[in-house]
């Protein structure tokens, strides 16, 4: 089932997510709905707060990035096969010199800005079967994970922008909160009480 994506301005996007365990109700259905919602919106990642749940779950599928002709065949292959569920994740290391990349977010449609992030991360997490892993990722995979991880920490990519950039996009962010934006996927706007 395709769920509405929560728009910028909703308080749930600012909440730190809570850990869950294997008894979390209807987890399998929730994950299936999250995948369906993400693909319907042409996203490469989706976090539970973006569908209104302040819990520590996010999904990533970097396959769409694999078509980038600027990447090496090895990088393309790595991106093509990367599809994972992250539950109760904790980034335990961020390393390397920060690099800028133009990011967007399904909760903040039509706003894209350069964000600096570390090129390599080490993350501890559980998969959908609550098996625990500690893994290291780099490049675009690390970036997508960091973006989604921020969501379960109550952080948005716009938080990384300079005060000037924030002022420049303030009006656009207000329009998103008010639902004065055209999107081709289902959204729920905090300042607009009816669902679209």
Proportion of residues in helical segments: 25-40%
Using DSSP, what is the number of strands?
9
CATH topology: Peptide Deformylase
Write the element-wise H/E pattern from the N-terminal end onward: EHEEHEEEEEHHE
- Strand-pairing-aware structural class: alpha+beta
- Strand neighbour order, sheet with most strands: 2-3-4-7-8
Describe the structure using short key phrases.
two-stranded parallel ribbon; 196 residues; 5-stranded antiparallel sheet; alpha+beta; Peptide Deformylase; 4 helices; 9 strands; 27% helix
Task: Describe the protein's topology.
Blueprint: E1 5-6, H1 27-40, E2 45-47, E3 57-61, H2 73-80, E4 83-95, E5 99-105, E6 108-117, E7 120-126, E8 132-138, H3 139-152, H4 163-178, E9 187-188
Parallel strand pairs: 1-9
Antiparallel strand pairs: 2-3, 3-4, 4-7, 5-6, 7-8
Explain this structure to me?
The protein has a single domain (5-185), classed as Peptide Deformylase, CATH 3.90.45. 27% of the residues lie in helices and 29% in strands. The chain has 4 helices and 9 strands; from the N terminus they run E-H-E-E-H-E-E-E-E-E-H-H-E. It has helices at 27-40, 73-80, 139-152, 163-178; strands at 5-6, 45-47, 57-61, 83-95, 99-105, 108-117, 120-126, 132-138, 187-188. Strands 2-3-4-7-8 form a 5-stranded antiparallel sheet, sandwiched between helices. It is globular. The two termini are 15 Å apart.
């Amino acid at each position: 089932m395709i769920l509405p994506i929560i728009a910028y301005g909703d308080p749930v996007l600012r909440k730190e997510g809570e850990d869950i365990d294997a008894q979390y109700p209807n987890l399998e259905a929730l994950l299936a709905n999250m995948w369906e919602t993400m693909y319907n919106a042409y996203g490469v990642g989706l976090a539970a707060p973006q569908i209104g749940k302040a819990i520590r779950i996010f999904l990533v599928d970097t396959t769409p990035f694999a078509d980038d002709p600027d990447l090496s065949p090895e990088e393309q292959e790595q991106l093509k096969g990367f599809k994972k569920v992250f539950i109760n994740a904790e980034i335990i290391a961020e390393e390397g010199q920060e690099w800028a990349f133009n990011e967007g977010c399904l909760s903040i449609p039509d706003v894209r800005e350069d964000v600096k992030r570390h090129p390599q991360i080490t993350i501890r997490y559980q998969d959908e079967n609550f098996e625990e892993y500690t893994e290291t990722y780099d490049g675009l995979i690390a970036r997508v994970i960091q973006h989604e991880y921020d969501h379960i920490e109550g952080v948005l990519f716009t938080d990384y922008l300079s005060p000037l950039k924030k002022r420049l996009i303030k009006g656009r962010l207000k329009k998103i909160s008010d639902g004065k934006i055209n999107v081709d996927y289902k959204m729920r706007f905090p300042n607009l009480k009816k669902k679209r």
